[in-house]
């Protein structure tokens, strides 16, 4: 059985990114820009060696949950975040109406 590692995600506002770490090592990040009442996700990256281990999903989920707690909207310029929202429609309500059609699941 494969060993499971704890994925921790934190917001690093000084770097304008959410960071995911595994066993204390940086494993991925999601860069954002802040605009009034919105978080614009511009790029997400998972470090080599951490792909396929759930890091990207944990990162997206934690970042979107944090945005929800802040009462802000999301503009998912980043394809990874947009794709995550499309696969998890419970986050569609966070997406700015102007961009919502880009993330709605297709029949």
Describe the structure.
The chain has 107 residues and is of the alpha+beta class. Helices cover 23% and strands 34% of the residues. The chain has a single domain (7-101), classed as Aminopeptidase, CATH 3.40.630. A 5-stranded mixed beta sheet has the order 1-2-3-4-5. Strand 1 and strand 2 (17-22) form a beta hairpin. The mean pLDDT is 92.
Set down the secondary structure blueprint.
Layout: E1 7-12, E2 17-22, E3 25-35, E4 38-46, H1 55-70, E5 73-76, H2 79-87
Parallel strand pairs: 4-5
Antiparallel strand pairs: 1-2, 2-3, 3-4
Oligomer: single chain
Strand content: 25-35%
Q: In the CATH hierarchy, what is the superfamily? A: Gcn5-related N-acetyltransferase (GNAT)
Q: Which range best describes the helical content: under 10%, 10-25%, 25-40%, 40-55%, 55-70% or over 70%?
A: 10-25%
- The global form is globular
Instruction: Tell me how many strands there are.
Output: 5
Number of domains: 1
Structural class: alpha+beta
> Could you describe the largest sheet, including whether it forms a barrel?
5 strands, mixed
Supply Rg: 14 Å
- The largest sheet has its strands arranged as 1-2-3-4-5
Task: Report the CATH architecture.
Answer: 3-Layer(aba) Sandwich
Number of helical runs?
2
What do the pLDDT scores average to?
92
Give the helices and strands as they follow along the chain. EEEEHEH
Uncertain stretches: none
Distance between the termini: 36 Å
CATH classification, class level: Alpha Beta
| CATH fold label | Aminopeptidase
């Amino acid at each position: 059985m494969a060993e499971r590692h704890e994925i921790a995600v934190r917001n690093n506002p000084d770097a304008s990114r959410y960071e995911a770490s595994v066993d204390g090592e940086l494993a991925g990040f999601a860069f954002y820009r802040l605009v009034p009442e919105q978080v614009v996700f511009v790029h997400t990256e998972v470090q080599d060696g951490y792909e396929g281990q759930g890091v990207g999903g944990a990162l997206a989920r934690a970042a979107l949950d944090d945005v929800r707690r802040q009462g802000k909207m999301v503009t998912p310029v980043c394809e990874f975040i947009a794709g995550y929202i499309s696969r998890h429609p419970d986050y569609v309500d966070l997406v700015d109406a102007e961009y919502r059609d880009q993330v709605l699941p297709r029949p």
